[in-house]
Design brief:
311 residues, alpha+beta, 6-stranded antiparallel beta sheet, 3-stranded antiparallel beta sheet, globular, disordered N terminus
Amino acid sequence: MPEPSNEPSEASGRKEPSEPDSGSRTSHGSHRSHRSHRSHGSNAGTGSNGSKAREEYGPHFVQSVARALSVMRSFSADRRAQTLTEVARGTGLDRATARRLLLTLADLGYVTSDGRAFELTPRTLELGYAYLSSMSLPEIAQPHLTSLARELNETAALAVLDGDEIVYVALVQSARLMAVKISIGTRFDAYTTSMGRVLLAGLPEAELDERFGRLKLERRTDHTIRSPRTLRDEIGKVREQGWSLVDSELEEGLRGAAAPVRDRAGRVVAAANVSVHTGRTTPELVERDYVPMILRTVRLIEADLVATVTH
């Protein structure tokens, strides 16, 4: 039910956008959002109990910052445009707080409104670009991924571990259709992907134990591993052989192979992979033909990474 559009803004005296009927807006995206963050979720520390949040995170914790970030993360491919009520519901904030945050973000250029709903602006890309531009790894990997993708005519990518998820930081798309949409910044649960298992295999045992203690395995497909013991065994296998192959566990029809990228100290800092459609390959073919090329690509990336650090 539409809400009145003449409610004054607490922050600036501007009029708050009215709420559209659920059927009055067209969808801006059809695929599932993969941007949730398990270990530092979009609602983390955003509730009304500030003292509880400080107990969890420490006395340094600034709740208003957490709330503003939760508002920004509430937008996704499925929710590119949201009403005030939808933002409040998605973040767990009351409407007054959500409104003040949205209007502040609008003042700073990160949010815009058509008078009915709010949307993020391209300026939000500055936040992610600051991270990408501060690290040389994606830039170093890009030409090698391009060569790999061209040789195999498949999608090649680089990802890093962020909490319990992987985040794509470099990508070369194939002209062939993929089973799932991927772009820079896309997130997936680490345990469901070849790159995620490579990155998990690179963690110290104590940290891996801690992660498994909070891990909740969700069924993405009929092939998704649901047993923590089975997953732990698979990660052990990945650690031993130096690469990972995941078949239709993230999406039906999507097969991925990955290998770790290490820094000069031998620490796993990223993972490179190739994604293929199951109808074009077999697991045996991927292991025989694709994995050696991925491993070669990883060695080239590592060599350039060490050379860059050295100079």
